[in-house]
Amino acid sequence: MYVAVKGGERAIEASWRLLDQARRGDTRLAELSVAQIREQLRLAVARVMTEGSVYDEELAALAIKQAAGDLVKAIFLLRAYRTTLPRFGYTQAVDTEAMQVERRISATFKDVPGGQLLGATYDYTQRLLDFALLAEGHANGDAASLSSSRTAVSEAETKAEAEAMPRVVSLLDKEGLIEQERPTPDAPEPGDLSREPLAFPASRATRLQNLARGDEGFLLAMGYATQRGYAHSHPFAGEIRFGTIAVEMELDELGETVEIGDIDVTECQMINQFAGSGDVPPTFTQGYGLAFGHSERKAMAMALVDRALRAEELGETLASPTQDIEFMLSHSDNVEASGFVQHLKLPHYVDFQSELELVRRLRAQHAAHSEDRDTSPCVDQTNAQQEQAA
């Protein structure tokens, strides 16, 4: 039971003012702008957009600033804002194979159509602090050299975009070596977790929505667990690609589909151990991950967990929490998890007082029983001595 605190309204208002001061920090330093966060903290912005279920870089950057860098709080803020927005309709399914690729790698084939495209990545950087970044300005050369490098990168991207980049799993699909999910005319419309509560049993479409909104840290830990034996999984990174795709929407007023904008996404297709039976030849299985912006770690972890959650439909033994759909989906959301944990900070005075009185009563009863046990041996011994004397 929660109870009101005397003078709580004034205390809360004062807390807000202190929060504004703490968020601003030292006023002698320039204030961090939303534009700077959007451009220079793009990986944090991508996570907030993905788990906040809103693709808007400016709003995600604003939420990060308001939350003083607490990404879970920023995700909560963005989701709360999302609930105020009207729903105009649904876009068409995007074709990620038509992506304008900025980065594309495969750990399964060295030579793939379109080639490996490293792009901007931390994969090959040394894990050392770059103290040159403490200095203002460009840490690695002047503006002219930076401009020339940007030109070279732009030319490389243009060349890469001009080349066809079919999915790596398509190479296996040509030989029938990997399962492929293809839409059927009678397939039911996928649910919308942003408008409908999670219910079980959950379809794969619902599970993927849940994982996309799920906490990256949770998915990372669970994906790690699947590789350590807590699932029937032996993964290979079939393909990870990052780039821009067009979003289209069918407008009833026009009677046609129009392009309404572009978004950046990261896609991961994880190739896993094969399945088969006496009637079906062995084929590789796969897990899938998709996230807004440049979010490779999230997409990879999502793909690992997605594959683990398919254990029952693939006829595998359910022997790990990572394969338990209800457990995984019910605990992956950081907004819900944060609420349950942090509600413990609210007043629980009445609840605690009742528990305190109960413990005091139990201790009193325990003390009484202890005294009875202490006197009982003396009485028994006296009676025995009297009987012996008689």
UniProtKB/TrEMBL annotation:
Any one of the GO BP annotations: organic phosphonate metabolic process
InterPro entries tied to this protein: PhnI
Segments for region (Disordered): 142-197, 367-390
Source taxon at top rank: Bacteria
Residue spans of biased composition, Polar residues class: 378-390
UniProt feature, compositional bias: Basic and acidic residues: 172-184
Protein name: Alkylphosphonate utilization operon protein PhnI
Organism name: Paraburkholderia xenovorans (strain LB400)
Source lineage: Bacteria, Pseudomonadati, Pseudomonadota, Betaproteobacteria, Burkholderiales
